[in-house]
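ESCALATION

Customer reports they have been waiting on this structure for their group meeting. Please prioritize. Original submission:
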Amino acid sequence: AQHQGGRRTSQSNQLPQTKKMAAHAMPLLKEKQLKWADVSKVGVQKSGILKTKGKKEKSSWSEYFFALHFNYLLYYKAGKKTGPADKDEPKGIIPLEQATGQVARYEGDKSGFGFQLPTSDGIYYFCALDLEELKTWLVVLQGQLDRLQAAGTRESLSETERKLEEAKKTFRENHMKCPKTVNSQGAADWLMDMKKYKEEYKKWGPYINGLLMFAEFHSEEETNVSSGGMVKYLKWFSHKATGVFEQINTSEKSVMENWKETIINSPSKSRSDLDSIFFIEDSMPIIEGAEQMKKLIDVYNDANRYFNGEQRTLYGEIKTELETLTNALKTLPSVATVTLSKYEGGSIKGGDSQMWIYDKFEGKLKRENLSAEVMEPVMFDISKSHVYVSQAFGLVIWNGRSWAWTHPQCAFILRYEWDETRKVFKQYIPKNPPKDKPLPPALSDWQFVDGGIRSVVVGNRTPKPEVPPITFWQIKGNLPPSVVLLVVNFNHFIRRKSHLQ
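Update from on-call: job pushed to the front of the queue and completed.
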């Protein structure tokens, strides 16, 4: 657009003019007591020190503090660069509705930081303090002019009122609900609803933005939008605490953060589950949970692309780890495959004081006292091949590959892995245990040798395992390896029981 003498020669892009506003805007703002403290946090798009000549190009520059609102500029006594004193009221107002063209550089200023705003009431001249401030004011001020042009005039808001009534019905019918729990199906359903809300927002948002351009000139007492009754709509849609758009944005942020936290923590939870699951029958809920988590990661990435424009696929490494964990769970033995049928029974003796008898037909493991010392009778029920139970000393789980002792009052699981080829039980220590669970004590490994079983240390272990009271046990008969390991570790069970008591 070309300017001659400050007047636009092309009228095709003129902004709407409202002379009526110029007459009543400043008194209305005074009535609201718009001190700097009241307006500094409400609707201010840009503020700072500017020099101005007002509408008189040949006048000298005067310095003021300017605050750009939705559709007007307020200016105050310059004071500090951070803003006027809280008690200060504006010295004047420049209504942007009166603008007749674009904000442009003012070549009449020797500093090179000048700009001008053409209005129906004359051209206003300004000068920024430096080049960066000049660039910022040009961009922000022109942006407000463009938004104001798109919004129309206050007299044209009756159509907006009809549209917003229609929008309220739409959002009321599709009342937003945050998912109560984190699961992939609920997440997918929620994302679908949020996409609908966002599409609705795109449809109705311009009308709300139109209201915002005029919001500060209206009161709650008015009922008709075109005469000022827009506050009810702004509250319903855009209130910072209760507005429906704010609820949507808050829901989006909180749900996405909740998903993110759940996804990040999922591998450690799955690893913990893997350490305490020994049969395929018990692993199915864990496998299903991991599958759901992988789907949730897909939904999260879909949401992240839609809401934030993020093109990268996040948490792929977590999906890979979950896949590895589920594959390990799927290889666990079935309870039905564990059997002790080939073992006939027998005894195991430690030194001159302890002997244990395994009776296959009774399904019992009993401790015999060989010394004059009075010892508490101990018996484990071994009627089931995969679990051996003692009311006093907890239970042992055996799946043919892993052996574990647990007690309801004990925070950890004592676990060994069976090497069939080397005939060795090696203690298993979790690499990444949950922070809220202690590690089991470092105990000896055990290896079957001719005539018995002895304590060993397999590999370089840190910390160094403690030496058991009896390092060699003599075996007679044909005993299951899992039963033998129960016997050689029983001294540890006793210590744990004493500690628990």
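Sent to customer with the following note: The mean pLDDT is 81.
Escalation resolved.
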